[in-house]
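ZP: hey, is the S-adenosyl-L-homocysteine complex queued? I don't see it on the tracker
AM: it wasn't, my bad. submitting now with these inputs:
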Amino acid sequence: MIYNYTVEELEEYFLKIGEKKFRVTQVFEWLYKKRVSSFSQMTNLKKDLIVKLEKQFEFGNLKLVDKMISADGTIKFLFKLKDGNVIETVFMNYQWGNSLCVTTQIGCNIGCSFCASGLEDKVRDLTSGEIVLQIIEVEKLLETRISNVVIMGIGEPFDNYDHTIKAIDLLNSPKGLEIGARHITISTSGLVPKIYDFADEKLQVNLAISLHASNDKIRNHLMKINNKYSLSELIKAVEYYVEKTNRRISFEYILLKGVNDSENNAHELSNLIRGINAYVNLIPYNEVDEFEYKSSSKPDTLKFYDVLKKRGINVTIRQEKGRDIYAACGQLRSKNMG
Ligand code: SAH
Ligand code: SF4
């Protein structure tokens, strides 16, 4: 599929078939700027090159199967992929611009005990083109520009590392979607070796870590990935990331009633991340029918927030979006509609 190719990869292919490199610039312009839907619409290419491209590459698109609109303007799109799998993509409108939450896998193998996406085992990874097309299709459907991309939909992006990195390249490239790296956020449950790899990429993309616990006991229970990479290993990787990239990291912390939301937990969390250039995003839990977890009360949330604040931690409480259409983080699930 043509959207799976970065500029460099397509240049390599063009050189191999005896075409000039600048033709890639033309093809990218048709794909990412003029947004055509077939090779035959690329009218400044020679006929024989169009035929070659048609033979070599699928064009690729996502088929809209459903759309749900929330009272707050959040829109959940269901797209069907070529193989029949269905993915969810969420559009959110903020005062400062708009944001698209994209999916990276069909299902998720990390299986966190509070998350709807993990209810279904991973069926397959999305390709970089399938990730990028989510933005292109939504921009077309809404006739708008997406200013921010959050890689926080279904799946664990670092379990689909190479495709996700390539998708970031295509999002960020001046020849691609031209979305500034600082307008892209990627969230991981904490695949430690990949955090080191990501740090070494030296991208200016924002990295968010789904922490959700202040000690190993709670985290082992919530996120079985913690049995593999403990908090101390995770924090070490985060420190490496911050040092290597000079960027602030963000920690996501879902507040679960009676599980991780005591004042004691807030102090423990402050100790855990003390000295790290970080901010903490406190996330109201979106309750999932299949699980018993409850969202923390407003007063407990504020108490938790106050402790962190007093301990000198940068902290915000995340604004909820699209709750009425189950479009919030962690409520997305992929369903195979064959
Ligand atoms: N797999 C990656 C990215 C996708 S999940 C990760 O885990 O980071 C995106 C965010 O939504 C994560 O912080 C995740 O913990 C959170 N999340 C999952 N289920 C949720 C729920 N029911 N309510 C609120 N946030 C949830
Ligand atoms: Fe997967 Fe992230 Fe959900 Fe955990 S929180 S199951 S890693 S999508």
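AM: back. The first strand starts at residue 63 and ends at 69.
ZP: great, adding it to the tracker
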